[in-house]
Design goal:
Layout: H1 8-47, E1 52-59, E2 65-68, E3 74-75, H2 81-93, E4 102-104, E5 128-130, H3 131-140, H4 144-154, H5 156-165, H6 180-184, E6 190-191, H7 193-204, H8 211-221, H9 228-232, E7 238-246, E8 249-257, E9 263-270, H10 275-298
Antiparallel strand pairs: 1-2, 1-9, 3-6, 4-5, 7-8, 8-9
Length: 309
C-alpha cells in the first residue's frame, strides 16, 4: 500500500481549517435555531385552532420554506380569484381582449345570494365599466358579480387550462361564485397551500406573463383591501394578496415584499368552529412569518441589527 506524504505545512494548517469549519457550523446553527422556533410557533397556532389549518410559506431569496399540510386540497373561497385575474392578464397579453373593453351591467347577470352585492346596488343598464374596472371590483371588494362576469368572458375552461399549464394539478375553478347548487354537489373551488404559493411564485418569476402584465397583475393585487394579511402586517409593507371566506373557511394567499427577503405565503383554514377564530389564526401565521423574515432582513448572519436611530 502506497504511503501518503503530508507536508508539515499542511499539518500546521489543519487545526486552522478545523477551527474555521467549526465556526461556520456554529454560525449556521444560529438561523437554524430561529427557523425551528418559528416552526414551533406556527404549529402551535395550527394545533390550537378548532379546525384544520394548512400553510405554505417560502422566502423567494433563499428558498427557505415552512409547510403544514401543503398538498392537502382545501376550499379556496375567493382566493381562487387569483386564477381568474391571471387568465384575464394572459388573454390581454395575447390580444384576445382588451382590458379597456366596455361592459354594461344588467340586473339579469347579478349574482343571486350574494351577501355583499356592491354592483347589484347600481342601476339596470345605467353603468358601463371596463374589464379592468371589473377586475378591481373582484380584487379589492371581492365582488362576486364582477367575478362571474369575468369568468363568463374568459371561459372557465380557459382559466383552468391556464392553471394546468403552470403544472398545478389540484387548483380548480369548478363553479361560479355563490353557486350554492353546484357547491351542494361538491363542485367546490379548490387548491392546496403549495399550489397557491407556486401560482404566485411562477407569476412573480415571469413564467406565466410578460413583464408588463406581471407588473399589472401584482399592481392590482396590491390595491388596499380588507384581508387577514393586511390586518396583521404594518401599513407600509407591500402586500399583493387575495383573501377568501366562506362559512367555516378562512384563507389568504399573497406576496409580501420585504427588502432582501420577499416571501409568498398561502394560509388556509377549514372546518372552523368559529369564523373569527379562523381569521385570527390566519392573521397570527401572517404576523409570525412577517416578524421572522423582517428580522432576517435587518440582521447580519450573526443576528446583529445595526440601527441608525
Amino acid at each position: 500500500m502506497a504511503k501518503v506524504h503530508v507536508s508539515s505545512r499542511a499539518l500546521a494548517l489543519l487545526p486552522m481549517v478545523l477551527t474555521v469549519g467549526a465556526a461556520l457550523h456554529a454560525q449556521e446553527a444560529l438561523p437554524a435555531a430561529l427557523h425551528a422556533k418559528l416552526e414551533t410557533r406556527l404549529a402551535y397556532v395550527a394545533d390550537h385552532l378548532d379546525g384544520v389549518m394548512g400553510y405554505a410559506i417560502k422566502d423567494l431569496s433563499t428558498g427557505e420554506t415552512f409547510l403544514r399540510l401543503p398538498d392537502t386540497v382545501f376550499p379556496q373561497a375567493s382566493s381562487i380569484k387569483l386564477t381568474v385575474l391571471l387568465e384575464l392578464m394572459r388573454q390581454a397579453q395575447e390580444g384576445k381582449l382588451s382590458l379597456d373593453e366596455k361592459h354594461t351591467l344588467r340586473r339579469s347577470e347579478m349574482t343571486r345570494g350574494d351577501t355583499e352585492p356592491i354592483l347589484t346596488m347600481l342601476g339596470d343598464g345605467t353603468v358601463t365599466m371596463t374589464l379592468r374596472d371589473l377586475a378591481i371590483f373582484m380584487v379589492v371588494l371581492s365582488d362576486n358579480t364582477a367575478t362571474n362576469i369575468l369568468i363568463d368572458r374568459l371561459g372557465m375552461d380557459n382559466i383552468n387550462a391556464g392553471v394546468i399549464r403552470l403544472g398545478l394539478k389540484e387548483t380548480k375553478l369548478r363553479r361560479h361564485m355563490i353557486d350554492l347548487e353546484a357547491a351542494k354537489k361538491g363542485n367546490e373551488n379548490v387548491s392546496t397551500p403549495r399550489e397557491m404559493l407556486t401560482l404566485l411564485e411562477k407569476v412573480s418569476a415571469g413564467q406565466a406573463l410578460d413583464a408588463a402584465r406581471t407588473k399589472e397583475y401584482f399592481d392590482l393585487l396590491r390595491l388596499p383591501k380588507d384581508s387577514e394579511f393586511h390586518k396583521a402586517l404594518p401599513e407600509d409593507i407591500s402586500i399583493a394578496d387575495k383573501p377568501g371566506s366562506l362559512e367555516g373557511v378562512r384563507c389568504d394567499t399573497g406576496l409580501i415584499n420585504i427588502p432582501g427577503h420577499p416571501f409568498i405565503m398561502s394560509v388556509t383554514t377549514t372546518y372552523v368552529a368559529r369564523d373569527d377564530e379562523g381569521e385570527h389564526a390566519v392573521e397570527e401565521v401572517a404576523r409570525l412569518a412577517y416578524d421572522y423574515f423582517n428580522r432576517l432582513s435587518r440582521s447580519s448572519s450573526y443576528g446583529r441589527v445595526i440601527s441608525y436611530k
